[in-house]
Write a structure and sequence with these properties.
Layout: H1 15-24, H2 30-44, E1 50-54, E2 60-64, H3 67-75
Antiparallel strand pairs: 1-2
Helix pairs in contact: 1-2
Length: about 90
Amino acid sequence: MKSGKISLEDKALTSLELFQYVYRNENFPLNVRLMAAGKALPYEFPTLGSINIKTESNTNVNVTMTFDDGLEKKEEEPDVIDVEPS
């Protein structure tokens, strides 16, 4: 695949690699390249998501973590446990 030519018999070819080849190849019509780029997009750039957790009291808890939340947690001081040698 490095040579710029693609073969459909290539066993190592993944669907993502095929989409990438199509949208990068200027020989395909623009509408085909745009479709391939759109199909490859979620696999190249993951999105943030949220989950709902049901508790025992049947109330929904919405858990959403953003990039900023992760940064704030890293800035906090780590928990330290003092252990006496025995």
